[in-house]
Here is the input.
Amino acid sequence: MTRRRNTELEALLAEFGYTHQAFADEVNRLAVETFGEPANCTDRHVRRWIAGHVRCPWPRHLRLLEHILGRSAHDMGFSPRTEQPAHVPPQVRNKSTTPDAEAPPPMDAMDAQLRVQRRTFLAGALVAALGTDQAPRTGRLGMSDVARARSTTARLDAHFNGLGGGAMVDVAANYLRGLQRALNHCTSSERVERAMSGVVAAVAACAGWSAHDCGDYALASRFRNEALQAALLARDRTAVTRAWSDLAVQAKQTGRPAEAARIARAALAERHVRSEPLIASLLHARLADYLARTDDVRGMARHLVAADRAHDRADTTGVPSWLAFLTPAELSGLSALAHQSAGQYVRAEQQALRTLDLLGGDFPRNRTFYTMLIAELQLAQGERDRASATIATVRTGTVTSSRIGDRLARVATAAQGGRT
Here is the structure.
């Protein structure tokens, strides 16, 4: 087989100032942060990638390379493994038949790797569509760079609100790294630096929700802490409040509702929130759910009322892209979740049905989620036939949330298992 030196990767390492050993060390460092263990990458791996001995690293390495360099597999000079000849059976793609392959991973990791490969492919298409490969690299940053970054971030938010996480986590993470590199390697005034830090906070928050939507809560937590740090550097009170709100969601999701409630209360106590009723509405609605999980049903009801009142006062023109999802439909959906947490399944189902009535066509992810929630609530009431009929109406289409997909599959199995 003819080998081609990977000049693209070689040029990228030179551009970012990495030696072979330093790059291997960075891969291992990020692996520990992401997976909790090193990737066992050495300078020999890097030399083989550059020499063309390896057409494409295994997905575990490839994902890390994409995070570090902010490039797709193709842009780094690799050929995705899906492009290998179809006539070579997977079980014999080893060193005897594919000289340029690295040792295959254990079989119990194959499903996860296939998911990563698919997500990598979709991420490449999203990068082109959303323009997240346009982060500044050298020179002096200006407010025009900030404006372009804000526009790109709005597209990221809109895509997530519509379709969910999936490949978005890789796209948002790579864009985040690109903006962070710009802040570290470009010059700028203090005004521009603060503004760009605000954009970094927004992108980190989007990456956090995308990871959350993939069920990767450890990665979501990392991004959300980065969002808080960037928001503090930007001295942006709204961005700080958003970061705290997302960390409260994180606490709830990992079984700490009392902590989530404390964070939400602290965010609501901030003076600026009084003049931002849409943010206050979101905080009240989420706090209601946290209180329901701590058996404070009266507190839940009080904050649901406060959420509705704040939303009624909000000016919904010119809403920030990250808050565009908070429509009356979503507010009703958050109420459904709170009632579900309180064990009030009939009321929760009524609210979820109202959500579907109010939802427009811009949020297919949310329609899928709340339809699934209705089926869950019907199961909780012992109505398996109704739940099965509800699940049959779900059209996942292009919704990319693996968390929702996995939960939907569990509900469908439970509903079918109860049928006679």
Notes: Confidence is low (pLDDT under 50) at residues 82-114. The longest helix spans residues 190-213. Residues 44 and 215 are 34 Å apart (CA to CA). The chain has four domains: 1-78, 133-235, 254-315, 327-420.
